[in-house]
Amino acid sequence: MLLAPLRERNYRLWAGADLVSTAGTWMQVLGLNWVILATTGSAAMMGAVVMAQSLPVLLLGSWGGALADRLPARPALILCQALRAVLAFALLSGDSHVLIFAVALASGVISAFEGPMLGRFGSALVPRETLGSALALGSVLSSAGRIGGMALGGVLVGLTGPAVLFVINGVSYLAVIGALAAMRSGQMRTLPRAAAGEGGMVAGLRYVMSRPVVLIVLGLSFVLGSLGRNYQVSMAAMAAGPLHGGSGAYGLLSTVFAVGAVAGGLLLAGSGRSTLKVLVGTGVAISLLQLVSGLAPSVLGFAAVLLPIAAGAVVFDTVVSTRVQLDTREDMRGRVLATMGIVSSLSGIVGAPAVGWLADTLGARGGLILCGLVTTVVALAGAAALARLHGVALPVLRRPAEQPA
């Protein structure tokens, strides 16, 4: 199952281009963070830039999903990649805060339309039965691209400054454009278009609201994403606080998290088991591990718990994406994916400040433990709710059948 998606030529092109583009994106993220910290010394300013990228997804995501279900994806994606390249090269013109915020805001607007189109287009590159493995393999490539991009960017930013990172990212989008142009249309699955009168945002919202399984899965994604996945905040709080590790420990923990993410993606891609049972089981497991992580006595102890948390987080997120796509109509795919993107953005906007506030108020350990308790309760409640729905098979939550006398 692991390599099944790679049998498709179009997917191989897409996977290779995505790896290159992801590495370039994270190099630009590192370069922008360096510029912001060098000119302002403010971590809050970095958070404001992230928020500027997320807000357009919240405001325009539903519209982007509706367009994704109606427009041909390939030319639209080529346009989006070209615009992203222009934004990357625009950063070469200076380090003005106005420019940085303008680029972040424009990037968010592109993401609002590009995200649903990417999801819909990607699902057309592989047979339906290998979609779960394709999504898991995509998570592996994204994690690998992030590790490679951050590692190479960390070396280059000290040698050349951030401008080179922006150039590399701009050029990386050409790889995606080339891959899109080289794909063979005849080897793509044809996804149905929305019927007349069902192509708008309201129809998409009405459809999502009528799917209780999807609503529960998205609810779990929001809570576990906001309180259980903002480890960039909690790792820094633990390293600088009770673990007394400093910046070196934070770098180690970030590396461990990235390695765990790759391992989780490989595990899921190899098994191909993107079921609701795996979803709730993983959600409960990573929530309990988060609670345990707040009790870790040392940096190495915290890293040991963080590794399976990172692996489980990737499994959980990938299964969420798989179930949301497989359990909904293909002609609604773009709008459903847009809703998922909105939930993801909202969890980041709400969760990061909430986790930071809890760490400041209760201490890093107290914040982790409380968040772990909340996410465990929510994960168990979600599992129980899914078990009650007609047609959902979650054997771990059922009573054993009575044996005949």
Automatic annotation (TrEMBL):
Topology class, membrane: Multi-pass membrane protein
Stored Pfam families: MFS_3
Keywords for this protein: Cell membrane, Membrane, Transmembrane, Transmembrane helix, Transport
UniProt entry tagged with the keyword Metal-binding: no
Cellular localisation: Cell membrane
Tree of life domain: Bacteria
InterPro entries for the chain: MFS_trans_sf (IPR036259), TM_effector (IPR010290)
TM helices/strands, residue ranges: 12-37, 43-63, 98-119, 163-183, 204-228, 248-269, 276-296, 302-324, 336-355, 367-389
PANTHER family the record matches: INTEGRAL MEMBRANE EFFLUX PROTEIN-RELATED (PTHR23513), STAPHYLOFERRIN A TRANSPORTER (PTHR23513:SF11)
Protein's recorded name: MFS transporter
Organism name: Paractinoplanes rhizophilus
Species lineage: Bacteria, Bacillati, Actinomycetota, Actinomycetes, Micromonosporales
